Predict the structure of DNA-binding protein RAP1.
Amino acid sequence: MPISSKHAGHPAHVSDEEKLAALRVIKRLRDETGVAGREVLAALTACSGQVGLTRRYLRLGAEACADFAWTAEEDRLLLDGADAQAIAALEKRHGQQSVEKRTAFLEQLSNFTSIV
């Protein structure tokens, strides 16, 4: 489950409770894996906030998780939205539903990055 799916698809204010919950997740993953907080945040971002996948990503490495992790380049293509072929390729690689969920996640991400 993503860190926050409460406001999926809606730009929203992040409550203090949600910020605290996100920080607790980052701290727990940092403590479990021995990885720096910024690296945990980067892994959470690559895994669309899904804690279980992020844990796997941190333990096994990016190459071992390439089947589900998103790259900065893919995010750029998705956010730009101008290249229909690129979007189709992302849908083929990740699935249409995952692309839609990723888009919603990226829209919410700016709300959380200001807390770290």
